[in-house]
Design brief:
Layout lengths: L3 H8 L4 E2 L1 E7 L2 E7 L2 E5 L4 E7 L3 H9 L1 E6 L5 H8 L13 E3 L5 E3 L4 E13 L2 E13 L6 E3 L2 E3 L2 H7 L1
The structure holds flavin mononucleotide.
Length: 164
């Protein structure tokens, strides 16, 4: 049997980006930090995110049937921490510049990339739900993405070297 610690440590060897997954249900906007994001299909364009059963975001996506994946830039660690913290969770968007996507989900102005999605399918998997989104629009900004590895934020070595 694999323990939670073993599993967490092994998953830590898999470098990921960091995103903020946002959604809007009527007047309510919400978002949380997510690293469990992947492309699924090219044609049609589909992505997936995994949301813990404990997360508020899960309920908002289930109700609104839309979400946006905002891929964070290397200088957005503070935003990642803010959207992961349970402290002041209803004030996460304060001072953050954002607009609205075609789905209604909040799109963060300074994100490195944005995938605005309608909910395509939901799968329950252990203590998480897998949300598959049909990508309705994408937006890109030319900047270095934030990296998450071994439980810490990091940067792409190629960018770090080229800046030296
Ligand atoms: C780098 C990082 C990655 C995370 N990735 C995920 C994830 O993929 N899925 C998830 O459910 N929670 C993830 N979390 C935890 C949530 O961001 C955190 O539990 C948040 O408080 C949930 O917010 P909510 O309950 O308001 O939706 C991550 C946290 C950090 C710091």
């Amino acid at each position: 049997m694999v323990t939670s610690d073993e599993f967490r440590e092994a998953m830590g060897r898999w470098p990921t980006g960091v995103s903020i997954v946002t959604s809007r249900d009527g007047e309510e906007i919400h978002g949380m930090t997510v690293s469990d994001f992947s492309g699924v299909s090219l044609s049609p364009p589909l992505v997936l995110v995994c949301a813990s059963h404990d997360s508020i975001t899960r309920g908002v996506i289930a109700a609104s049937r839309c979400f946006a994946v905002n891929v964070l830039a290397a200088n957005q660690r503070e935003l990642s921490n803010r959207f992961a913290s349970k402290k002041d969770e209803h004030r996460r968007f304060e001072g953050v510049a954002f607009g609205e996507g075609v789905t209604g989900a909040p799109l963060l102005d300074d994100a490195a990339a944005i995938f605005d999605c309608r909910l395509h399918a939901t799968f329950e998997a252990g203590d998480h739900d897998i949300y598959v989104g049909a990508v309705e629009s994408v937006r890109l900004r030319d900047c270095e993405p934030l990296v998450y590895f071994g439980g810490s934020y990091d940067r792409l070595a190629s960018h770090t070297v080229s800046e030296a």
